[in-house]
Amino acid sequence: MKWIILLSCLCVLTLMLAGCNQQEQKKATTQGDATEQPIEIKVSGKQLEPNVVLAVVQLKNPNEQAVTLTFPTSQRFELKIKDADQKVLYTFSQEQVFTQAIEQERFKGLETKRYEVRIELPDSSHPTQVEAMTIRQVKGDAISNGKAQNEISN
Predict the structure, then answer these.
(1) Model pTM?
(2) Is 110 helix (H, G, I), strand (E, B) or coil?
(3) Phi, psi of 15 (to 5 degrees)
(4) How many CB atoms lie within 10 A of CB 93?
């Protein structure tokens, strides 16, 4: 008889612990969804001279509520210029110096922030495509989910 009571108590305790674990997992998932408000990225490029490209990167908060992004450095985006063979001619992070401090930037609801980069390339290069990616963290979670690319116009 004692054996049956002990086994029943053990089963009830196991079920209670399993239920608590499922509630914690559901709560963590719900909180994660609320903090991962996407930032949209757009990029365009214009060839000003045979070896000069003006790249414009736009980061937009598509939500009506404000969002604060945490960046691991002062870098807000990565930018690459490619030729017709997809060879990388220019990488923004290799040409710049960024502070190695965690920084936060607040985006108001529906706000767009615009960044312009003037890029001088070697005379022999023939740029055809510009590509940009977000570099950010949201509430401590490493995320780099935004990517955009576009043809370079003349």
Answers:
(1) 0.71
(2) coil
(3) -65, -40
(4) 14
